[in-house]
Amino acid sequence: MSQSDPISDFLIRVKNAGCAGLEETRAPYSRIKEDIARILKEEGYIWNYEVDKSGRFPQLVVKTKLVNGTPVLTDLKRVSKPGRRHYVPVADIPRVRSGLGISILSTSRGVMSGAKARRENVGGELLALVW
After folding, report:
1. Burial letters for 51-75: b for 16+ Cβ neighbours within 10 Å, e otherwise?
2. Structure pTM?
3. CA neighbours closer than 13 Å in the CB half-sphere of residue 129
């Protein structure tokens, strides 16, 4: 099966697993997906993640976070897509839901949250907005 946007597929899998009340979800592994999962864990949107290398192809296993049966990750928006990349300078990094959400950027210093990119004074490709 070919995917035109694997990052969007990964984010939607995590969101849908939370909405369905599932404890975990699996997605094909890539380094950028692992970096996004790391940011989601640091910001408190998921419990944990791990790389499962037991099968033929490695998979990323994400433990979704539910509070009183409600998913913590309620919605997201994929900004930069394969057909249209969206780059932002440090001054234009968006604040999501007045600081209640996060933006995820791919910068020259790696994948990081918008707040960290502002602290390090670096812009980059705006991958997604999560709240």
Report:
1. eeeeeeeebbebbbbbeeeebbbee
2. 0.95
3. 12
Strands 59-64 and 66-67: unpaired
Residue 3: how many CB atoms within 10 A of its CB? 11
> Which alpha helices (H) appear in the chain, and where do they start and end?
6-19, 31-42, 114-119
- Please report which helix (H) or strand (E) contains residue 24, including its range: strand 24-28
Residue by residue, pLDDT tens for the chain (131 residues) are 557 999 999 999 999 999 999 999 999 999 999 999 999 999 999 999 999 999 999 999 999 999 998 999 999 999 999 999 999 999 999 999 999 999 999 999 999 999 999 999 999 999 999 99
Residue among 33, 65, 72 at smallest CA distance from 51: 33
